[in-house]
Amino acid sequence: MYRNAMSKSNHQVKSHFYYIFWGVMAVAVVGTQLYNTTKYDRITTALEATIYAIENDRFNGKVPVSNCRVKYGPGY
């Protein structure tokens, strides 16, 4: 009887670490996706601003490549 209780206890400990592991992995995946989403949003905003500036000739034919954080476009 003691042996049966011991194996059941070990099984529950493994189950506990199993759920902790997969919980941490799920948080890591969701966090990475949120991080990538914010970076793609910044890239899209910079690209839209550059395209808007080129279309409206805001730079007089010169596009500043190093200054992508300039806010041009509708709503700015």
Secondary-structure map:
Elements: H1 2-55
Question: What can you see in these coordinates?
Answer:
- This protein has 76 residues and is mainly α.
- It has a domain at 43-76.
- The chain is 71% helix and 0% strand.
- It is built from 1 helix and no strands.
- It has one helix at residues 2-55.
- The chain starts with a helix and ends in a 21-residue tail after the last helix.
- Could you say which overall geometry the principal axes of the C-alpha atoms support? rod-shaped
Radius of gyration: 27 Å
Count of helix runs: 1
Q: What about the largest sheet?
A: none
Task: Give a concise summary.
This protein is mostly helical and 76 residues long. It has 1 helix and no strands.
Task: Give descriptors for this structure.
about 80 residues; 1 helix; rod-shaped
